[in-house]
Amino acid sequence: MPEISVIIPFYNAEKTIQKALKSISQQSFTNFECILVNNNSTDKSIEIANKFCADDHRFRLVHEKKQGVIHAFNHGLSISRGDYIARMDADDWCFPNRLMKQFYFLENNSEYDVVAGLVEYVPHKTKTEGFARYVNWSNSITDFKDISLRQFMESPIVNPTVMWRIKVSDKYGAYEDGNFPEDYELWLRWLAKGVKIQKLPETLLRWHDSETRLTRTDERYSDEAFFNIKTKYLKKWLNIHNPFHPNVAIWGASKISRNRARLLKSSGIKIIGYIDISKKRQLDTAIIYFKNMPSPREIFILVYLKEETMRFNTQRFLEKKGFIEGENYLLVS
User: Residue 309 is part of which domain span?
Assistant: First the structure.
């Protein structure tokens, strides 16, 4: 029986799938199965997949007619035989020791149920600065504490780097279909259930960006979709961790910050005021000048600042005032 099931959904991936499959076939860890799930491809992807299956008995090809990566992956998961599930995309490339390092981490660290890794970003030609910033941010977050604290900023895990124990998805479910990014929702759901996720501080995958990547083209990956699903799980987090629940203050009084924070109101969270660095701004809701704000014993703050330098400076200011991340304030944007 294979110890690891690598699941690769694919759709019209003839330009990249051979390289992706070769990187799996050349893994130093050999006791795996690789389930290739064709999702209605019309190019030569199936031909390439069939050849791999004929040449290497560890590869097997199945088909999922219901369109969508979630349906394709869940089909592969339903027929998997390994105790560990490894995610992989048909346009990426694994370093040779990826499976081995993740397998032995989970074998030797029973308190963790999911392990991911760092990525080497391979951009396409234009407009990739934002995605590169995200990769740098994600690669800077490795241990469970930081993953847990920063889960409401962005998705802290790069999806095709993960390996998890099959018992986790058996108990809490795998990817769900909805108007949200399925991978981000999965990490938020599992973290809310107490699942511990660790990231190896090593590069395990070359992550290829493309102009047709779903995160660029599908409305389920829009800013609105991210903030909607983020707010749903942020409410659950605040119910447990906010000592002043349901009251919060929002650091960030710009129109963008206010629009994103307003989603909290429909979740039953009460915004008692917006903290701003200007004394002149006027709103219907109270404005709290940052130098005059209450102490950590009186307020819980959600930081809605997207710009990295502003966010860093705000953290330094808060910590000098005695605020502790996760106890008195949280970064959410």
Answer: 223-331
